Amino acid sequence: LLGISLYLVSLVPLLKLQDTNVSFTFERKRLWSIWSSHRRFMLAEWVDNIAQETGWLWPIYVYINLVSVASVGVVGTLGKIGSIVLALVMGSLSDKSDPRRLLRIGALLMVCVWVGRYLGDGAWFLYTITLLGAMAGKVFAIPYNTLLFVEAKANPVEFMLLREIPVFLGRLTVFAGAVL
Question: What's this model's pTM, rounded to 2 decimal places?
Answer without folding.
Answer: 0.72
